[in-house]
Amino acid sequence: MSAVAQRIDANDAEAQELTDGFHLVIDALKLNGVDTIYGVPGIPITDFGRMAQAEGIRVISFRHEQNAGNAAAIAGFLTKKPGICLTVSAPGFLNGLTALANATTNCFPMILISGSSEREIVDLQQGDYEEMDQLAIAKPLCKAAFRVLHAADIGIGVARAIRAAVSGRPGGVYLDLPAKLFSQVMDAAAGEKSLVKVIDAAPEQIPGTKAVDRAIDLLKSAKRPLIILGKGAAYAQADDDIRALVEKSGIPFLPMSMAKGLLPDTHPQSAGAARSTALKDSDVVLLLGARLNWLLSHGKGKTWGEPGSKKFIQVDIEPKEMDSNVEIAAPLVGDIGSVVSALLARIDGDWQAPPADWVESIRSKKEANIAKMAPKLLKNSSPMDFHGALGALKNVIKERPDAILVNEGANTLDLARGIIDMYQPRKRLDVGTWGVMGIGMGFAIAAAVESGKPVLAVEGDSAFGFSGMEVETICRYNLPVCIVIFNNNGIYRGTDTDPTGRDPGTTVFVKDSRYDKMMEAFGGVGVNVTTPDALYRAVSDAMDSGKPTLINAVIDPAAGSESGNIGSLNPQSVVVRKK
Ligand code: ADP
Ligand code: MG
After folding, report:
1. Which of 200, 265, 494, 526 shows a CA-CA span of 20 to 30 A to 210?
2. Is the CB of 433 under 6 A from ligand 1?
């Protein structure tokens, strides 16, 4: 086996083949199909990265652990295999932990592997290099956390981490590997035997027949049914069955942000452009891998129309998700693939399409909204507003439906979500459940690495700043990533001032910055554009060439609104101080 570390001659007697912690971790990962690691090298995992690369694992080295962690998390979402992030101890671990917590919140399978300092010294708090009780700190922020102290337990440790990450509701797992473990030596044959290949890591979870009956009865009684597709449905990779369920049932569907493209946004049954009407007026809502959290107004309030006007069917692998915010009339616990095929089997001869007036009311609302938006998207002004610029990008994705779109920002996010149509599953990657900023470059890099397809990252100038240094990583690995920065000189807008006149306003950046120069510094292509036509041409060129590109798109500093669509979440003071 490859893990033969060295051969030593014991007292000139028999030669014994040995392995060590380094090799056992690498072999355990390879045995379980891990082909890529995202990380940042340093003590005590520098050699581990080198050796993993030498053993054929692709190792992508980042500039900051949070970005490596975000890359691992989205790799997990895209592949249904845990994405691996590798970091150094204490500070590197903490940087990666933000991404691990975010992965857990979003139900993305990921394993954060961090080196750590000597247990004996850490536990006595004697002040070791980068001393920190990492396992204790990770525990409340992820799905599971494990530490391996003996080389002979590495196989089990890696197996448990993989199974915990992908089984049931997927999530983040922490694996603590103390420095000493890496150089622990053991007999090579015993080491090989100690490895575990995880069998059926995410077992099917078949829904009960009664639960399926209950859901079908409720759907059949509906006058105004609606299907909401969430990112759990996108993750499940049951694309054909989900599409068949929607089309055979005839029920209008509404995709959550990262479920866009599961069916094309241009599909006749899409209620995307009639979102408010669909939520407010529906009477039975089938939630497919979507939670009734803040992104769906917790299933209540005026978004959802009259109190008591709604019954919910919820499909989720996590039983505890049921009734989290409102009563679920028909809970359907199981994996989405199994549940959807069970439902599909019941959409048979005596199934009746939803009433025509409901379907028609959604369709007409949708067409009116699309018609209202159309002229805004054609505006070719300079500087650009958000709509004009996004109109250009909408056309780029229409022409390249297999490109992956990464999107973060405030206005840049909220408007792009509505304007840019998606056509294929798992092509839209964004800020997810927390609405977190900083996922941009990590997601873009992993999307390019995992798919080999061109990636378009549409970034607010503020959002980009959280991971911007990774443009060097993009150039270093020569990835087909095109970054478009919507540069409006600041957060939300670029017009804030300091009332005292001393400093810049708290939400503004250096005016008229040229982010494109950052890309040029590392050998990539930088372009500055001031019109939607020029933006369209620059992005098209980048997507065709596959060269790392950064386009600085000059947006009117007055164009944005506070916090994009979620300004209402920003508390505002009503107290006026007397001077
Ligand atoms: P969105 O933000 O798109 O609404 P959420 O992240 O809120 O999506 O919800 C995703 C849900 O999908 C989670 O409750 C999660 O438990 C569930 N889920 C994830 N994978 C599966 C799966 N394979 N089968 C069933 N449910 C899943
Ligand atoms: Mg901005």
Report:
1. 200
2. yes
